[in-house]
Amino acid sequence: MDNYKSIINLNVNGAMYTIEVKNDWTLLKVLRDVLGLTGAKCGCDKGQCGACTVLLNGKPILSCLTLAVAVYGQEITTIEGLSKDGELHPLQQSFVDHGAIQCGFCTPGMLMSAKALLDFHPHPTEEEIRTGINGNLCRCTGYAKIIEAIMAIANKGQR
Amino acid sequence: MLNVRGNCIPLISGVDKATASAIFITDITLPPMLYGKTLKSPYPHAEIIKINVDKASELPGMIAVITGADIPNNDRTIGLANADISCSSSR
Hints:
The complex is a heterodimer of chains A (159) and B (91).
Chain A (H helix, E strand, L loop, with lengths): L4 E8 L2 E8 L4 H8 L18 E4 L2 E4 L12 E3 L12 H8 L9 H14 L5 H7 L11 H13 L3
Parallel strand pairs in A: 1-5
Antiparallel strand pairs in A: 1-2, 3-4, 3-5
Helix pairs in contact in A: 2-5
Chain B lengths: L13 H5 L35 H4 L34
């Protein structure tokens, strides 16, 4: 079973890819090793850290626990698709401005969770922001500045 | 100096990290690249008496299994870093 392969279509950041994958490859492996999109990180590979978070049809998922064949034909957004035409997404700019980035390893996953949160809840409370990113571990910042960065965008009503 | 001291200075690598154009070690692939894995003792404060590498050596694609025995004059590089640590009063 492990050696069986499938041909799948993936829509990643608006681009269509037709690729051959082994049936046991995770979406994270395909993004990083096949498509070369190394923004989503492999932190724990067990669904504990959230560094691999990407959006599946707009909702945050752990790409290390998602088989690539299971998301056949669906719409994936990664951190590489967040900024448009070289212009930072407001959340990215806010993370930079508020010092919400230190080592940067959790940042891509954290930003994708934050984007999904604001897409579904444009004006979250601080508590809701904490809940929105509670699947993303950060060992540097202590979260306070990340929450401030998201709060600043939420208050502006920007997405 | 005065425009730095007392001010919040944005992280130089901030934008690179926010856009994921920052490259981490695990993002680098250099063919032909070897992959390594460490095996740790499942027991805390245990003394390593022997290591059997036979099965590991037979794995397909295996290049090398490296243990303390491969290090010349290895005294404590691999193994107990400090033999006294297990009875340290701070633990």
